[in-house]
Specification:
alpha+beta, 6-stranded mixed β-sheet, 5-stranded antiparallel β-sheet, BLOC-2_complex_Hps6_subunit, membrane, endoplasmic reticulum
């Protein structure tokens, strides 16, 4: 039974805001530019410069306010406008020839509002000639002043353009985030910009230099490459390109490195360009429709019954279900994409017709899900769907039935048993959970495109894993293959709950291929050194929660099976022991309540110490680093005690100084411990400045002297003025003075003396007068009455007259 093409009315435009104005613009202006939002609810109409008001209209289907903008005579109107594929709210960007760009949004308040305004060409002297808005980016072709890059003459004018881009993403509820400007291509001719869901097409225009008018470029951002194609020559070349990495291409340099592209050819004579998911369609003036595929290859699709009469005539191209739809004037032709055969030709009631892009995957509403697979046609009469009508009496199997039938064939090929699997067995047997899960998803009326988007990463990993297994079976590059397989397996296990068999399997992988397994952990946790001997991580909290968590439900793992944190610590001990303390310190910062660091179980540093072995058998350096980095008072005091026993005074002092001011008690305990050693022997004298820095600011001189007196060694004999040869020198006032000054305040106290030792710290700076050394006359003595104070106690000055 032959299928028939149908035009189904979706809306008479009455359910759009501003329906009257919408019909007026669609019926009255053949040059109006029409775009549809990714969700299919908004229509944007932009009239050319000089058209009557309004030049811009945004209509919305259902609840919502329309947007009308008009620019008075003498003030330029936008060069182009695009909807942005933001799922949270509708948004559009307007771009002027001067480089001004405005981002408007709806849903953040009543009506539409301006979110951001920026200049794409801040230096001035540039003119935007074309613009496009692929997913997450804003790309434009700008004309710069001739000779700005050191070139003169007519070719400099023809190649004075450059193609630039900026990232454009939503930020918060009512903000936008515009990235830095990157140059994709410079010293190039003027290009028109067209975008599909994956690729950006740079096509020649009427003003392109004739010698390169037969060349077009295809940029694939996801692949990081640009394809240079000459459809009339049947040539295409691919080059890697990464504008974010700072490597823009010079157009002339690019072409000189590609042989054959500059052969003398006539420029492309194109009436209409149209990007599609299959590539770029173009209609020439002979009525031939060709397809430029993303890899650069070109093929003819078919020829229309009538060719466009002139460039002024309207034409629109689109594809659906392997069918090419072309609206030329008031005629709709449907051609088979494979054979080019004309399938159907319809005459429409108007020549003001626009083909709309289908909604983005995952953004369709229920009505559009029912009408999937067709094109939408917009005119002043209404919004229609162009599609094929299924033959009567044809019953298609449900998606659920197809899942179980395909699963039967798949499991049967991999099964070793002779019995035949049936769809009913798969439905009721709990062994086969994958088809049951997929069928349950499909029962929730999830669109295939949404399901494909959700499962794309898993399908890509599965395909790569199957290819890797085949490579290992064939024996090709076994070492690299096993490494990649281990990385895949660790990444897969990290997405599970890590209970029982999954944890045991992860332990096995780490035992067999520790280097590859640790590489997968590095990527999962996004670990990077910061240059100061520490680690930083950008992994989400859910990943760290899985790493730090202990065994679930309070059950201990089987003998020999380590939880993930202990497993990583053991792996680090084998591969890079010096990174174990920074890793444990980072884990302590990431941990939350009940994750293994703040819960009722052992702290993380204790769990790491248990991996090192029993006390006394652990590597001393690692044990000290773990204790010092734990931040726990008992652990830090234990580490400082070990350093004191090893007489590593400087490291012990630095451990105390490294503590934050929020730990005054711990710093005070470390100071008292080291002060006791300072009182007993002189091996700390060289580090006295560090000891002074560690001294608590609230310690009084009296308290300091009492602490010292407690730890001074007992003197069995009266002190001698000088120590015996070879004996330990005693503590002197000169050494003690620095500590006493540290305990005093910054200025001399104005109140009463609080300690009987404080007068030691404050001297007047001027010594008292020198006592007399010879006999004086009575007259001299009376001139200096203050000298009587220097007489010995109980004696007077004996004055004799020698005259």
């Amino acid at each position: 039974m032959k299928r028939a093409g149908t035009l189904r009315l979706l809306s008479d435009l009455n359910n759009f805001s501003g329906a009257a104005r919408l019909r007026e613009l669609l019926a009255g202006d053949p040059a109006v530019r029409v775009r549809c939002s990714p969700d299919g609810r908004h229509l944007l109409l932009l009239r050319p410069p000089g058209a009557p008001d309004p030049q811009l209209l945004v209509a919305v289907r259902g609840p919502g306010a329309e947007l009308e903008r008009a620019w008075p005579a003498g003030q330029p109107s936008p060069l182009d406008a695009f909807f942005l594929p933001w799922p949270a709210r509708p948004a559009l960007v307007l771009v002027w020839e001067s480089g001004l760009a405005e981002v408007w949004g709806a849903g953040v308040g009543p009506g539409w509002r301006l979110l951001q305004s920026t200049e794409l060409c801040p230096g001035g002297g540039a003119r935007v000639v074309a613009v496009a808005a692929p997913r997450g980016r804003l790309v434009w072709c700008e004309e710069r002043q001739a000779g700005a890059e050191g070139r003169e003459g007519p070719p400099a004018v023809a190649f004075s353009h450059c193609v630039c881009l900026r990232t454009l993403e939503p930020s918060g509820e009512a903000g936008t985030n515009l990235g830095r400007t990157h140059i994709l291509l410079h010293n190039c001719p003027p290009f028109g910009l067209l975008t599909s869901r994956k690729d950006l097409f740079l096509v020649p225009t009427a003003t392109t230099w004739p010698g390169v008018g037969h060349i077009l470029l295809i940029w694939s951002p996801s692949k990081g490459k640009v394809v240079v194609a000459a459809p009339c020559l049947g040539l295409s070349h691919s080059k890697s390109l990464n504008p974010g990495g700072g490597d823009p291409w010079d157009f002339s340099t690019l072409l000189r490195g590609l042989p054959g592209l500059l052969s003398p050819r006539q420029p492309l004579t194109v009436h209409t360009w149209a990007p599609t998911p299959q590539g770029l369609l173009w209609l020439d003036f002979r009525g031939t429709v060709s397809l430029v595929q993303p890899h650069g290859g070109t093929r003819a699709v078919g020829t229309l019954q009538e060719a466009p009469a002139s460039l002024a005539g309207s034409a629109a191209l689109g594809t659906f279900h392997g069918t090419l739809a072309c609206v030329l004037g008031s005629t709709l032709e449907l051609l088979d994409m494979g054979s080019g055969q004309l399938l159907e030709r319809k005459v429409l009631s108007t020549d003001r017709v626009h083909l709309l892009e289908p909604p983005a995957p995952g953004m369709e509403n229920e009505e559009e899900l029912e009408t999937r697979g067709g094109l939408r046609l917009l005119s002043a009469v209404g919004l229609f769907r162009v599609g094929w009508e299924a033959p009567q009496g044809l019953e298609l199997p449900s998606a659920e039935d197809l899942v179980f039938e395909e699963a039967c064939e798949y499991y049967q090929r991999r099964s070793l048993r002779g019995a035949r699997l049936t769809p009913e067995e798969l439905r009721h047997n709990s062994t086969f959970r994958a088809p049951q899960a997929l069928a349950s998803i499909l029962q929730g009326h999830v669109s295939p495109s949404t399901l494909l988007t959700t499962l794309r990463a898993e399908l890509r990993d599965y395909r790569g894993l199957e290819q890797l297994k085949a490579q290992l079976v064939a024996g090709d590059d076994e070492e690299a293959g096993w490494t990649e397989l281990a990385e895949h397996e660790v990444a897969r296990l990290l997405r599970t709950e890590l209970m029982g068999d999954q944890l045991a399997q992860l332990n096995t992988v780490f035992q067999a291929l520790p280097t590859a397994a640790w590489g997968a952990i590095l990527r999962a946790l996004q670990l990077q050194p910061d240059g100061n001997g520490r680690l930083r991580s950008q992994a989400p909290p859910d990943v760290w929660k899985k790493v730090l968590g202990v065994t679930t439900c309070g059950k201990e793992p089987p003998s020999g099976i380590l939880p993930l944190f202990e497993l990583l610590c053991r792996c680090l001990c084998r591969l890079e022991p010096r990174w174990l303390p920074p890793f444990v310190e980072l884990a302590q910062q990431q941990g939350g309540p009940g994750w293994g660091s703040g819960g009722p179980g052992l702290p993380l540093y204790r769990r790491a110490l248990e991996v090192l072995g029993e006390e006394g058998t652990r590597p001393e350096a690692l044990e000290l680093d773990l204790l010092l980095g734990s931040g726990r008072p008992k652990a830090v005091l234990q580490a400082v005690g070990q350093l004191v026993q090893k007489e590593e005074w400087e490291r012990a002092l630095e451990a105390g100084l490294a503590l934050s001011p929020s730990s005054p008690l711990l710093r005070s305990e470390i100071f008292k411990l080291l002060l006791a050693e300072f009182a007993r022997h002189r091996r700390l004298d060289a580090h006295l400045p560090l000891l002074c820095r560690l001294c608590p600011p609230d310690l009084a001189p009296a308290e300091l002297l009492l602490l010292l007196r407690t730890h001074l060694p007992d003197e069995l004999e009266p002190p001698a003025p000088f120590p015996e040869p070879g004996a330990e020198p005693p503590l002197t006032v000169g050494l003690l003075r620095a500590l006493l000054e540290q305990t005093g305040t910054k200025g001399r106290p104005s109140g009463p003396v609080l300690s009987r030792y404080e007068d030691i710290l404050w001297d007047p700076g001027t010594p008292p007068p020198t006592p007399p050394r010879g006999p004086m006359s009575a007259l001299q003595a009376s001139d200096h009455p203050g000298l009587e104070a220097w007489a010995p106690s109980g004696q007077g000055l004996c004055v004799t007259d020698t005259g």
